[in-house]
Amino acid sequence: MKENLYFYYTNDLHSNFEQWPRVSGFIKEETGKRQERNENYWLVDIGDHMDRVHPISEAFMGKANVALMNDLHYDVATIGNNEGITLSHEDLFHLYDDAEYQVVCTNLHSLRKENPVWLERNVIIKSNSGVKIGLLGLTAPFNDYYELLDWHISSEFEALDHYVEQLKKEADIIVLLSHLGITEDQEIARRYPDIDLIIGGHTHHLLRTGESVNQTLITAAGKHCYFVGEVILTWDHLEKRLVDKQAYAVDITNYPKDLKTEQGLQMLQDEADKLLGDPIVQINRPIEVKWFADTMIMQELTNTLLSYTNANCAMLNAGLLLDQFSAGSVTYRDVHRICPHPINPVVVELAGDELIEVIRASFTKDFTELKLKGFGFRGEVLGRMMFAGINVETGHHKNGEEYVKKVTCNDGNEIDRDSVYQVATADTFTFGRLLPEIARSETKKYFLPEFIRDLLVETLKRVYG
Questions:
Q1: How crowded is the C-beta side of 459, counted as CA atoms within 13 Å?
Q2: Locate the Calcineurin-like phosphoesterase domain: which residues (predicted)?
């Protein structure tokens, strides 16, 4: 006898709640079919369901995301870096207290006395006919951040070496929920042939019909839940093994929305507006924001960053602020709307010549007009760089492009190319190749759990209060 075992999964929603009613409608319809046929199915999430870019997630510190997953009767979830490193230790410790599903993260460890009660190293689920499925969960090891929040992410291979061997003795099928990214998933599949299925995320890759590496099926459904994943595992009871594995990512972009979910989200939004509605300052005239020009608010925010970090100099891109502040009462809701990014302050050490190169690169058209997506940035373009603690003298080429003529310290002395400077900026630039000198810096000090918008609040109070 052969039996189909169904998994439905979501990954990397990033609090894209506009899409969530479609996810809800699709999941309810598909699982309803399985219930009618008395078929075994499970619903799992691969992390980054929460993103503090959305006011609902901000107001409830992720607990509204957990409630939404409860409403859809999720069975198991693992955590992503947005759950892991954008919340304080206490907020993550209690994030899943009310979860009606199991949370598995095999490589997450608290550096305080105890782990949260919800944290499972592995989970075993059982089909109606007795087939045992062992699930592991892994999240990306951003320990420069985690350890500042009193957590540690151990090596995925160290975790797998122990728990795959254990699950081989206890389960018929092994499934990994991986918030590590496609490259790591492929390497795990090469190293651990006993893992039957890897459901992935983190790098927002879309595998419409899965990918087989050795004996392992890998799948993932992109980002923002425009796709929902389905996996069908076929178990042969006579042979006592899997005889078929299929994976699909289903496009639900135009799927009908579930009305009840829409209504629930509106109620959450109304409550979030109230929670974020406390006034910060009262202003008599609008505060101007421009992406490609110097403004008072961006200069003062950069000054706040310099003072907060006690660095030698500071630099922030104007694209961090998405809109102007209107005259009247300015609330936390306004600050979140205008600076929604889950971006932390960071101080990096740069040699003088590296600092000058970074400043030069920040004035190029390629940099200021870059429509960045990712690395925590949730804006439109990077915009003009603002500086504090140093003076940047610029000129213009015949074609109108701005260039750096001279960089001096506040005391009037030019930057010493051989000296080392502590430079405060947004942690966005420590990733990728936006400003390579910053990304390559061997000394990086991150400031957590504060976001740049927390410094914006202090700036508004100091300057306009």
A1: 22
A2: 8-205
Instruction: Tell me the pTM.
Output: 0.94
**Cα gap 89→115, rounded to integer Å:** 11
DSSP code at position 287 = B
CATH label, 2-271, candidates 3.90.1150.10, 3.50.50.100, 2.60.40.10, 3.60.21.10: 3.60.21.10
Going by C-alpha positions, the residue among 447, 407, 409 that lies closest to residue 430 is: 447
User: Does a cis peptide bond (omega within 30 degrees of 0) precede residue 141?
Assistant: no
For 62: left if phi > 0, alpha if psi spans -120 to 50, otherwise beta; the answer is left
pLDDT averaged per 10 residues, the chain (length 465) = 96 98 98 96 98 98 98 98 97 98 98 97 97 98 97 98 97 98 98 98 98 97 98 96 98 97 98 97 97 97 98 98 97 98 97 95 94 92 97 87 87 89 97 94 96 98 94
For domain 278-464, the CATH class is: alpha beta
